C-alpha cells in the first residue's frame, strides 16, 4: 500500500512538474487543454491537505456529475495506475476551474477522487476460493476469482451496514417498534452482497421473507427499510407491506413474499418476461431449504427447463427450516441436485467471492441454456424470526462456532488486512461510518409518521386507461363500498 | 340504436375475437394455459392462435396450475399482460394461494409499485352431468380477495366486450365463463367496442320487481319472465355482470323504482354472491324495500352425477316464477 502510494506520487509529480518547476499551487493558464490541465503542485501533502479540508463542504451540483464521470472513467479503465493518474489529472483541472470560479465547495468531489486515488486503487487482485464448489451435471467454475481492492472494501462496508441494520432491527423489535414477524438475515449477508457483484440492473431478484438485506443490495436505503419495519409512511411500501413485503421496482427487486415457496413460480414468470421481451438479463429466484420441499418449486423448475427460461434458483441453505433441521425434513438435503435435469452448484455461502463467482458463472449459463440451481451453504445467527430464540433446536456452541470460523465479514476483514488494502485503523473508521449511517437512518425513520387513514383504501385497485375500466369509485357513489 | 354492420357468431368465437383483437393490438398480451396452443383450447377459444401468434405467445403449459398462474403473475409484475386460462375454473383452486396472496395483494403490499394486469378466465358452473369436481362455481370463493375484480359474461356481445376490457384493465380480473353457454349465437357489431367492467346490464326494464342475476341463470330468468308476463307481472331483469365490485348505482336505481328484489344465482347458498349482494342492498336501500330480499341459489351439495338430481341442485325457471309470485303477491 505504502509502496503503491509512493509510486503514484512520484509519477504525478513528474507529470506535474514538467517544464514549469515548482511555482506555486495553481497557475492560471488560459491556453491549457482540459486533459492536460494538471496545474502545478508544491507537494502532494499540501494538495491533500487542501482537499481534505474542503471535504465536508457542500458540493456544487454542476460539478457533481462531472466528478462521477471522472470516477466512472477511472474504474471503467480497469483501474490501472495510468487510469488513476489520468483521473487525478482531470480532477485537478476541476480544482483549477473551481478556484477560478470561486466555487470552493465544489472542491469536495475533486478531493474525493484524489483521496480515493490514494486510498483504494482498483488494481485487480486474484484470490483463490478456499472451499471448492460441488457440481451436478455441469463443470465447476474456476476457484480463482478476480476482484479488486475497491470491490473488497465495498463488500466490507455493505455487509457491515447490513449487519448493523439487522442488529438494530433486533433491538427495535424487542422495544416493540417492530411488531408481527421479523426475520433477520445476519450471518447470510455474503449471499446477497456477493450476488450483487455479479449482476446488473437488467437482472431481477425475487426472494422470500428474509428480505431486508436483499432490498438494500438492490438499491434500497436503510431509511426505507427501518421505516417499513416500523410501519411508517417513508417505508418502501408506504408502511403497508411490513417486514415480509419489501419491493423496489427500479432496482429490479420483486419482493418480499410471505408464503414459503410461492415466489418460485413468480420468479419463473419474471424470467419468462425477460425472454419474451428479449431483455439480456436473468432472474434469481431465491428460496430456503424449507421451501425446497414445496411442490410449486418442482413445477416451476419443470416449466423453466422446458422453455429454457433464464432463471437461477438460489437455495439459501441455512440448514434449518424454522425449527426443523434439514436432515429431518428432506430425504435428500443435497438441494443443488434436486433440479435433477437442471444442473446445480453447491457454493460456500459465507464467502462473498465464491458467491460472486458462482452467480457470474450461472448467469452466463442461464442466458445461453436455461435454468440452473445454486445452493448457498450459509447460516443464520438469529432464530428463524424474532419469536424464535434459535437455540432450542441447535446448540449455542454451533452458533458461536460458525461465527468464529465462517463469519463473512471477518473473512473479508482478514483479506483486506492481509492484502494491505486497509489498515486496522481505516477499517475502524469504516465501521464507525457505517454505524453512524445506520443510526442516522434509524433516528430519521423514527421521526417518520404513520400513514394517513385514507391510505387504507389506496392501492387496492389501480385506475386503468384505454377502455372504460376503472376502480371501485367510478360513478356517483350512492353507497360506500366496503 | 342505428342498424350498424353486424356479424353472427357463437359465444366462444366472440371470446376468441376479443382475445385475438387484443393480442394484435398489444404485443405484450399472451395466453398461458393447458392445451391452448396446438390443441386450440379445450373449448376452442384459442383455436388458430398458435399459428398466428407463435407458441411463445400462446403457451402450452404442463398440468401445473399453481406454478403457471404464479408465472403469469410474475410476468405481469414486469409489464406483460398474460391471460391465464383454467381449463375448468375448478382447477384454479390449485392456484388459490397465487391468486389470493400474490395476484390480489401485490399492488397493495408493494405500496403501489407493481400492478398485476392479469386476466384469469375459464369455464365454470354446473354443466351436463360433469360430476362434482368439474361443476365448481368459484365466484364465491374469490369474492373476498381484496384487489381482484370479477366479471361474468353471459352473451356473445358482453363476452367479447368484457374480454377486451379485462385485458386492458390494470387490475387483475377474473372472467367467469359458463360451460353451457359457449354455443350461444348472437349478432354482434363489426366495429370495435368494449364493455365497462363495473357496469350491470339491463336485460328487461320493468316495474314490479328487480330480478338480479348473472351468467347462465340469466336465461332461466328470461324464460321464467315469459310465464310471469303472461300472468300479468312486469319484472325488471338486470344481469349484474360485475360480481366484484357490484354496480350499486344501477341496482339502486332499480330498487328505488320497483321496491322488491329477487336474486337468482348459480353459486352455493352459503357464502355466495347472492349472500353478499343481499346484505349490500339491505344496508344501502333498506328504506326503499317493501319486503324481504329473495335469494335463489344452488343447493349446498356437491353436484351429483345423475341428471334429475343435478337439475334439482340448480335454480329452475318454475322456482323463479313461484318466488316472484310470493314476493309480489298473486295477481
Automatic annotation (TrEMBL), chain A:
Q: What does this protein do?
A: The pyruvate dehydrogenase complex catalyzes the overall conversion of pyruvate to acetyl-CoA and CO(2). It contains multiple copies of three enzymatic components: pyruvate dehydrogenase (E1), dihydrolipoamide acetyltransferase (E2) and lipoamide dehydrogenase (E3).
Q: Where is the Dehydrogenase E1 component domain?
A: 158-452
Where does the record place the region Disordered? 15-36, 435-456
Q: Which InterPro entries match?
A: DH_E1, PDH_E1_Alpha_Subunit, Pyrv_DH_E1_asu_subgrp-y, THDP-binding
| Cofactor entry | thiamine diphosphate
Q: This protein is called what?
A: Pyruvate dehydrogenase E1 component subunit alpha
Per the UniProt entry, what are the Gene Ontology biological process annotations, in alphabetical order? pyruvate decarboxylation to acetyl-CoA
Keyword annotations for this protein? Oxidoreductase, Pyruvate, Thiamine pyrophosphate
Q: Which organism is the protein's source?
A: Physcomitrium patens
Q: How does it assemble?
A: Tetramer of 2 alpha and 2 beta subunits.
**Enzyme Commission number, as recorded:** 1.2.4.1
Q: Which GO terms describe its molecular function?
A: pyruvate dehydrogenase (acetyl-transferring) activity
Positions with biased composition (Acidic residues): 26-36
Q: Which reaction does it catalyse?
A: N(6)-[(R)-lipoyl]-L-lysyl-[protein] + pyruvate + H(+) = N(6)-[(R)-S(8)-acetyldihydrolipoyl]-L-lysyl-[protein] + CO2
Bias (Basic and acidic residues) ranges: 435-449
Q: Source organism lineage?
A: Eukaryota, Viridiplantae, Streptophyta, Embryophyta, Bryophyta
UniProtKB/TrEMBL annotation, chain B:
Catalysed reaction equations from the record? N(6)-[(R)-lipoyl]-L-lysyl-[protein] + pyruvate + H(+) = N(6)-[(R)-S(8)-acetyldihydrolipoyl]-L-lysyl-[protein] + CO2
Q: What Pfam family does this protein match (any one)?
A: Transket_pyr
EC number(s) stated in the UniProt entry for this protein: 1.2.4.1
Keywords, ordered alphabetically:
Oxidoreductase, Pyruvate, Thiamine pyrophosphate
**What are the required cofactors?**
thiamine diphosphate
Q: Which domain of life is it from?
A: Eukaryota
Q: What is this protein called?
A: pyruvate dehydrogenase (acetyl-transferring)
